[in-house]
Design brief:
Elements (H helix, E strand, L loop, with lengths): L1 E2 H6 L6 H4 L10 E5 L25 H14 L3 E5 L9 H10 L3 E6 L6 H7 L5 E5 L4 H8 L4 H14 L4 E7 L7 H11 L3 E6 L14 H15 L5 E5 L3 H10 L2 H10 L8 E4 L4 E3 L9 E2 L3 H6 L3 H7 L13 H4 L4 H8 L21 H5 L1
Parallel strand pairs: 2-3, 2-9, 3-4, 4-5, 5-6, 6-7, 7-8
Antiparallel strand pairs: 1-8, 9-10, 10-11
Helix pairs in contact: 3-4, 10-11
The structure holds iron/sulfur cluster.
Iron/sulfur cluster binds next to α10 and α14.
């Protein structure tokens, strides 16, 4: 994840200790718990192919045990996601277990089930709620496959804000909505929302590559997002494409930015972050379908790393773009997207738009400084 506003304005942010610690912990600091595959919507770009067909959920006790293991591992941050995590009635108990152990809890939701009653249960234990939006009402509802989804999500985020929970937006950039960045910032102004994260499409589940923008469009969209970040009014992040950080460096030429990017180290799937699927399979992230182990042995996955985890830790020896001069600040981008696009886990990430960043004119000494 790249904090565009942090890099541009140098204003410290809450997640700095995770994003720029530069530490090489043996365990991930962030775990995504996909606690269910059930969802009341059927989004076109859902990476977990979730929907209304009554999927089996793992029992609460399994997730509570996973939180305990996460705590033993020193995990700092658990992201509750799905499916729609609020489809689980016992979600607040998972959040409470994490909160009681000093783990920061975030909720990633479509927002339609954010009622006062659910927030009453959750608000003490959840540090942040990210509500997904895809654009104006018609565009959003078409994406979500349900008429009325937009108005319910807006209602949910308003209640969440009213009840004092830090609430922001999540927006996945696709061919169908990339020109709604202005709309999103206007909406944030109107609703008094100060945080947004833009996601590059990862080709997993129903998120087909055909939905993605081309890299020329991607560059223009990210430049626009950077422009919006300049006045420091919002906390703006992008996720799943470390090249955005290189773009910021190329525009600022700031040694401070380069230093932060170095400490961030680019994509760290399987190292700084990992994902647990609704069925309890542990993956390097939400988008890379290479199993690392099972939820019941969460900690052991890093205590006794298997061949795939070892390869991810040593990915510079395998990723095909490893001779790139920005490898240390990118780490080769998202492996799951390379795998989905080419069938080869170690191929170049197709969303890398480094070739289009024409203002970079760095010498080796810049990179070594
Ligand atoms: S070529 Fe590879 S390492 Fe370099 S910026 Fe692109 S994805 Fe990152």
């Amino acid at each position: 994840m790249i904090s565009v506003s942090r890099l541009i304005t140098n204003r410290p942010e809450g997640a700095d200790r995770i994003r720029y610690s530069g530490q090489k912990d043996i365990y991930p600091s962030v775990l995504v718990f996909n606690v269910t595959r059930n969802c009341n919507l059927r989004c076109l770009h859902c990476y977990s192919s979730s929907g209304t067909q009554q999927f089996y959920d793992l029992p609460l006790s399994v997730w509570i045990e996973a939180v305990k293991q996460a705590s033993d591992m020193g995990v700092k941050h658990i992201l509750l996601s799905g499916g729609e995590p609020l489809a689980r009635r016992d979600l607040s108990l998972i959040a409470r277990e994490a909160w009681e152990r000093g783990i920061r809890v975030e909720l990633s939701t479509n927002g339609t089930m954010l009622t006062r009653e659910r927030l009453e249960e959750l608000r003490k234990y959840v540090d942040y709620i990210g509500v997904s939006l895809d654009g104006p009402e018609k565009v959003h509802d078409a994406f979500r496959g349900v008429y009325g989804a937009f108005s319910k999500s807006i209602k949910g985020l308003r209640i969440s804000k009213e009840m004092g929970v830090k609430t922001g937006l999540r927006f996945t950039i696709t061919k169908e909505n990339y020109n709604y960045v202005d709309f999103l910032f206007d909406l944030m102004k109107k609703e008094g929302i100060d945080r947004v994260c833009f996601y590059h499409l990862a080709y997993a589940g129903r998120a087909d590559r055909k939905l993605d923008v081309d890299n020329k469009t991607r560059l223009e969209v990210i430049k626009k997002i950077i422009d919006y970040s300049k006045d420091g009014e919002w906390e703006v992040l992008t996720a799943d494409n470390p090249v955005d950080g290189i773009l910021i460096y190329s525009l600022t030429r700031s040694v401070r930015v380069l230093d932060l990017l170095r400490r961030n180290g680019g994509n760290k799937s399987g190292e700084r972050i990992a994902d647990v699927s609704p069925e309890g399979v542990v993956f390097p992230d939400q988008f890379t379908p290479i199993p690392l182990g099972e939820i019941k042995n969460l900690k052991r996955i890093w205590d006794e790393p298997g061949p795939m985890l070892k390869k991810l830790k040593e990915r510079r020896s395998f990723v095909k773009c490893s001779s790139c001069r920005f490898f240390e600040v990118c780490n080769g981008g998202l492996r799951g997207r390379a795998l989905a696009a080419t069938g080869d886990l170690w191929e170049r990430d197709p969303s890398c738009y480094l070739d289009l960043i024409d203002s970079i004119n760095l010498t080796d000494s810049d990179l070594k400084s």
